[in-house]
C-alpha cells in the first residue's frame, strides 16, 4: 500500500496520525517543525525525537525531499534555476529570483503540461503527471535551504497549469501559509492560469487573498487561439467574466499577463483593443517580452514596440508594467532547462 506523504499533512491531520500511533499530540508539533521550519530531508535529522519514533514514522509515511540535479546561476542578474529530481525519477524546474522587495521563487505545479501554449517549452512533451502538494512545497523549501535566504514571495508560474491540479494547489497554498511553517502570507502568492473558467470560478469561491494572474496574450479570440489552444474551449468573453467575478468575490485585482510576440500581437492597434478589453476589469497588464525557444519561430518584440504598446495602454487608462527579464542566459523560461536535460538523457540512452 502506498504511504501517505508526511510533508503534505496539515498540523491537525498530523496530530491525528501521530496520536493514532500511540504518541502524545505535542510530538506532532515537534515533527511539523522539523518538516516545515527546519526543512529536514530525512527522519534521522529529527534529533529531539526517540529513535523508535523516527523509525515508526519512516515505516508509516513517505517524506518528499527533492534532489537538485542541476543549478544554473545567471551571470546577468544572479537568478538561479534549479532542476529537481522527484522520487519517481521525473524532473521539474524551479527558479529563485532576487528583487529589492525580497526573494521570489517560481515553482512548477505539474511534470510537463497539456495546455499546448505555442510559446512555452513546458508543454512540448505533454503532461506526465500532477505534482503533490508536498512536491510543490518542497521546491520552496529546498531553494530556501540551498540559498540560506528567506523566501518572501511564491509564484506558481512554472511548468504546468495550476488549476489543472486544483486540489493539490489549494493544499499547497494552505501549507505554505501555516503559522507553524514558513508562514508565507497568501498576499505574497501568485497563481497563474491560462484561463480555465470553471477553475477560476471555483478558486474565487475559496475567497483566498492570493493574486490571480491570467495568461491573456491577445485581446481577441482569433489571435488567442493561435497562441493558446485552451482558447478553443473557453471564449475570451467567458474568461474575462470569470476574472471580473474573481475580483468581486475576493477584492483582489487580477494581473493580466501578456507575452509580446513580434508581428503577432505587439502593434499599437492591438494595444488599443487590449485597453478596451481591460477597461473596468480591475487589474493591470504585465507585459512580457516573449522568451524565444528553439522549437518555435516566435520572435521577441523590439524595445521600441514594447514601449509603444505600454504607452498606448497607459494613455487609455490601463496600468501596465514590463516584466524585468530574469535568467535569460540560463534557459530562464518555463520548461527550457527540463527539456534540454531530457534531450541530453535521450541522447545518452541512444549511444
End-to-end gap = 37 Å
Low-confidence residue ranges: none
Main β-sheet description = 10 strands, mixed
SS class: alpha/beta
Roughly what is the average pLDDT, rounded to an integer? Answer: 92
Q: How many whole angstroms does the radius of gyration measure?
A: 21 Å
Approximate shape? globular
Count of alpha and pi helical runs: 11
Question: In what range is the share of β-strand residues?
Answer: 15-25%
Helix and strand sequence: EHHHEEEEEEEHEHEHEHHEHEHEH
Summarize the topology.
Elements: E1 4-5, H1 11-20, H2 25-36, H3 51-60, E2 61-62, E3 67-73, E4 80-85, E5 91-99, E6 102-106, E7 110-112, E8 127-130, H4 133-147, E9 153-156, H5 166-176, E10 189-193, H6 197-206, E11 211-215, H7 221-227, H8 236-250, E12 254-260, H9 268-278, E13 283-289, H10 303-315, E14 320-322, H11 336-350
Parallel strand pairs: 1-2, 6-9, 9-10, 10-11, 11-12, 12-13, 13-14
Antiparallel strand pairs: 3-4, 4-5, 5-6, 7-8
Helix pairs in contact: 1-2, 4-5, 6-8, 9-10
Quick recap:
The chain is α/β, with parallel strands linked by helices and 351 residues long. It has eleven helices and 14 strands.
Q: Can you offer a commentary on this structure?
A:
The chain has 351 residues and is an alpha/beta fold. 37% of the residues lie in helices and 20% in strands. The strands form 3 sheets. The protein has a 10-stranded mixed beta sheet with strand order 3-4-5-6-9-10-11-12-13-14, with helices on one face. It has a two-stranded parallel ribbon with strand order 1-2. α4 packs across α5 (166-176) and α6 (197-206) packs parallel to α8 (236-250). The longest helix is centred in the middle third of the chain and has 15 residues, at 133-147. The chain starts with a strand and ends with a helix. The mean pLDDT is 92.
Amino acid at each position: 500500500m502506498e504511504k501517505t506523504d508526511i510533508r503534505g499533512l496539515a498540523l491537525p491531520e498530523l496530530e491525528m496520525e501521530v496520536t493514532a500511533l500511540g504518541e502524545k499530540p505535542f510530538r506532532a508539533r515537534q515533527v511539523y517543525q522539523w518538516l516545515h521550519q527546519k526543512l529536514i530531508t530525512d527522519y534521522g535529522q529529527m534529533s529531539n525525537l526517540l529513535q523508535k519514533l523516527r523509525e515508526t514514522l519512516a515505516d508509516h509515511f513517505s517524506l518528499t525531499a527533492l534532489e537538485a540535479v542541476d543549478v544554473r546561476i545567471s551571470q546577468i542578474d544572479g537568478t538561479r534555476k534549479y532542476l529537481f529530481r522527484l522520487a519517481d525519477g521525473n524532473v521539474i524546474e524551479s527558479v529563485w529570483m532576487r528583487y529589492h522587495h525580497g526573494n521570489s521563487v517560481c515553482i512548477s505545479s505539474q511534470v510537463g503540461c497539456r495546455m499546448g501554449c505555442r510559446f512555452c517549452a513546458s508543454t512540448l512533451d505533454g503532461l506526465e503527471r500532477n505534482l503533490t502538494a508536498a512536491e510543490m512545497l518542497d521546491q520552496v523549501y529546498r531553494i530556501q535551504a540551498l540559498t540560506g535566504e528567506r523566501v518572501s514571495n511564491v509564484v506558481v508560474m512554472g511548468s504546468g497549469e495550476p488549476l489543472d491540479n486544483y486540489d493539490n494547489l489549494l493544499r499547497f497554498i494552505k501549507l505554505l501559509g501555516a503559522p507553524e511553517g514558513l508562514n508565507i502570507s497568501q498576499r505574497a502568492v501568485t497563481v497563474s492560469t491560462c484561463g480555465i473558467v470553471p477553475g477560476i470560478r471555483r478558486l474565487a469561491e475559496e475567497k483566498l487573498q492570493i493574486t490571480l494572474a491570467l495568461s491573456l496574450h491577445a485581446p481577441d479570440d482569433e489571435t488567442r487561439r493561435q497562441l493558446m489552444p485552451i482558447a478553443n474551449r473557453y471564449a475570451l468573453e467567458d474568461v474575462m467574466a470569470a476574472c471580473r467575478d474573481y475580483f468581486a468575490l475576493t477584492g483582489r485585482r487580477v494581473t493580466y499577463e501578456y507575452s509580446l510576440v513580434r508581428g503577432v500581437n505587439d502593434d499599437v492597434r492591438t494595444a488599443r483593443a487590449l485597453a478596451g478589453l481591460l477597461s473596468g476589469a480591475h487589474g493591470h497588464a504585465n507585459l512580457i517580452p516573449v522568451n524565444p525557444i528553439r522549437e518555435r519561430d516566435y520572435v521577441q518584440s523590439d524595445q521600441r514596440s514594447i514601449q509603444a504598446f505600454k504607452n498606448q495602454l497607459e494613455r487609455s487608462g490601463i496600468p501596465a508594467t514590463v516584466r524585468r527579464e530574469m535568467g535569460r542566459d540560463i534557459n530562464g523560461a518555463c520548461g527550457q532547462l527540463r527539456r534540454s536535460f531530457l534531450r541530453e538523457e535521450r541522447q545518452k540512452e541512444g549511444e
